[in-house]
Amino acid sequence: MDLLADAAERDRTDPLAHTRDLFVPSATPLVAYLDGNSLGRPLKATRERLTALVDGAWGTRLIRSWDEQWMDLPFVVGDALGAACLGAAPGQTAIGDSTTVLLYKLLRSAVAHAGPSRPEIVLDSENFPTDRYVAEGIAVETGAKLVWLHPDPSRGVTVDDVAAVVGPHTGVVLLSHVAYKSGYLSDLPSITRVAHNAGALVLWDLCHSAGSVPVTLDAAGVDLAVGCSYKYLNGGPGAPAFCYVASRLQPVLSQPIQGWMGNSDVFAMGPSYAPAAGMRRFISGTPPVLAMTGIQDTIALIDSVGIEAVREKSTGLCEFVIAYVDSSLAEYGVQVASPRDSAQRGGHVTLSHPDARSLVAALWERDVIPDFREPDGIRIGAAPLSTSYAEVAQGLLSLESLLRSAP
Ligand SMILES: Cc1ncc(COP(=O)(O)O)c(C=O)c1O
Ligand SMILES: Nc1c(O)cccc1C(=O)C[C@H](N)C(=O)O
User: CA-based, 20 to 30 A from 403: which of 15, 77, 370, 384?
Assistant: First the structure.
């Protein structure tokens, strides 16, 4: 069977095929959007929800909407996200700030909580830059010591890697659940257990798993987590991130950006700060109400189809890519740079090729949109709710035709 016929057959039997039509179509030609792991597509429902917000809660109810619904929105949306995607019971997830700022708030809180007898932060050289930079800044600020792991770039951090370095001086282990380059899916429950056995806290970055890979924060006993909402959660450019703080830790953590919205009585406006109980203390300033709009629609959609179904389609799309690389693109020097075992891979597949940079540029000219990641990665992030097999097939055929015509 040729690739397009194979894709058509898969689309015909795909239980999530219908969700693609719920997204806003591109107004200009788009052959294949394969970058849902950087910026997800908007849902049509979001356009309606934004208009309704402008006309109603904002345009009509005005300041009254803070009392009527907005003060609690970070927690209402956080709880919905926790239930649909994160395995988190209510009262532990909040929306607000960027991932970077939330990483700072939670890592800084955790370092302070661990205290001077546990000054080490364990992290890895393959993690996304912002995670590494935030930790570097906190090390300078607090005197914490960074303990670097250097995992094989084609995979990511394993249980054994963590077990080898944690000990009586470890305060916090900071890792990404899905590696942004290789797509490696770390064993979150086992790594959390190893860190806890050493007496350390764990802070997981879920940017590349939220809305794509089911996460079991409560069941795994995770302490802290952050993640962004503009990838698989389709919150839109710059949509706010989320943070998770396990209930048991909320009363004992003090976050460093003390703002009025995290105060115990927000409108008391008293002389000094007294942190609110629960997740409110992790909020600093006014919540980004408009920017929380899109996330709500995708959470509702994932809740209706189930995160397990999303993961199943995601795995199918990735395996479809890998099979075609093996059968047809390997002869042009394309390699699979992600783990081949789906159980060890998140929602994207990275291919490597010496000319990856120019190939991606040429693909963009043909309205095929993967992304390039240094040094030689072509990252295929086919968001399962908005991407068909046919779209992925068109993208792969475009790549093949470029490779075939290369001098
Ligand atoms: C693992 C990871 N952490 C953090 C971020 C981004 O942080 P921010 O939302 O602050 O831009 C990204 C992607 O942008 C990411 O892939
Ligand atoms: N967050 C991004 C942005 O603000 C602009 C352009 C791209 C991005 C990304 O999502 C990068 C992404 N986290 C990555 O995994 O490479």
Answer: 384
Numbered ranges of CATH 3.40.640.10 in the chain: 71-303
Nearest ligand atom owner, CA of 206: 1
Picking from 101, 50, 90, the residue whose alpha carbon sits closest to that of residue 227 is 101
Q: Is the CB of 180 under 6 A from ligand 2?
A: yes
CA distance 296 to 231: 13
Residue 166: both structure tokens together:
């944690």
ipTM: 0.95
- E strand or H helix at 10: helix 3-13
CA of 130 to the centre of ligand 1 (A): 7
pLDDT digits (tens, 9 = 90+) for 353-379: 999 999 999 999 999 999 999 999 999
The helix (H) or strand (E) run that includes residue 209 is none
Domain 3-42+306-405 in CATH: superfamily? Aspartate Aminotransferase, domain 1 (3.90.1150.10)
Is 0.95 surpassed by the pTM of this model?
A: yes
Two structure tokens written together for 10: 């898969």
The CATH code for residues 71-303 is: 3.40.640.10
For ligand 1, whether the C-beta of 176 sits within 6 Å is yes
Nearest ligand (C-alpha, residue 374): 2
198: helix, coil or strand?
coil
